Amino acid sequence: MGGEEGEMGRAQPIPVLLVRSYSVYATYGNHYESKPLIALIFYEVSGGPFGVEDSVKAGGGPLLSLLGFLIFPLLWSVPKALVIAKRATSFPKNGGYVLWISAAFGPFWGFQEGFLKWFGGVLDNALYPILFLDYLKRSFPIFNRLIARIPALLGLTVSLTYLNYRGLNIVGLQFPSLAFFAFAILVMGLLSIPRIRPKKWLVVDFSKRQSSFGHRSWIEWSDGYFAEVGMLVGGFWLKWWIQATATMSNLGLFEAEMSSDAFQLLRMSEMGMLPAIFALRSKYGTPTISILWGHLLIVDELSRNYRIS
């Protein structure tokens, strides 16, 4: 039985259920080329800035949003990355934080962590098809109508779920092509540089404040507004590129989250926390029941989602 060195130097025993055979998992092979793996990680933790437009409206302008994006990674992302790096190297096995918490506090709390993470991930995944259409509807207003919106949401969800069912290799290989679209935001930023006029920031006529500061419609910043900014900066070609980038980004986020959630259920089943049926694999090596279970919950959320219309 393996163990990890505790804070006081004594080995902390890992519960028996955590040291089961990993031969089944290894049979299907989980080796990827570096580029698909890097792209998979990118979509697992980021996927692009799309969906943050509301923060500009909520903060009354871009200042607070930009400060948040600069400060928050230092307060949250860096410490979290250090914790994960330490734990992942201490437990080089499939299972992640379910494995870590089970070793530290027992399988009961490991199950709680696993269930809450899976449930939160599936609920989060229900947002990506909606964001997908939120960008498209700016060029195709028909997606504002339920007669087109509902079939599009269901069709998109079913198609992406099937892609996950076909295997992680297929999912991983599509990510580099999806990541290419992310350059649209970089291009928009580069095209904006020649238009920067710092002297305008310092010219203020307090007797005519409205004409000095101008009217900034921060209230218009909502999901999909980056495409409108691209239109102002570069024209139709950049608007369409950003729309394509946003839609592809949401597809990548959906695939990465669904893969992670499904394989988490599979591992929890192999650890004895869930019925064995969740560990059943298809001929492609994917956890069929785990994927289907997540898909059904996503469809249920889409059917009642407060933003479906």
UniProtKB/TrEMBL annotation:
Q: Which UniProt keywords apply?
A: Cell membrane, Membrane, Symport, Transmembrane, Transmembrane helix, Transport
Q: Which GO terms describe its molecular function?
A: polyamine transmembrane transporter activity; symporter activity
Membrane topology classification: Multi-pass membrane protein
One GO cellular-component annotation of the UniProt record comes to:
plasma membrane
Instruction: List the subcellular locations.
Output: Cell membrane
**Membrane-spanning segments:** 63-83, 95-112, 148-165, 171-191
**Assigned protein family:** Belongs to the amino acid-polyamine-organocation (APC) superfamily. Polyamine:cation symporter (PHS) (TC 2.A.3.12) family.
Q: What is this protein called?
A: Uncharacterized protein
Per the UniProt entry, what species is this protein from, by scientific name? Coptis chinensis
Q: What does UniProt list as this organism's lineage?
A: Eukaryota, Viridiplantae, Streptophyta, Embryophyta, Tracheophyta
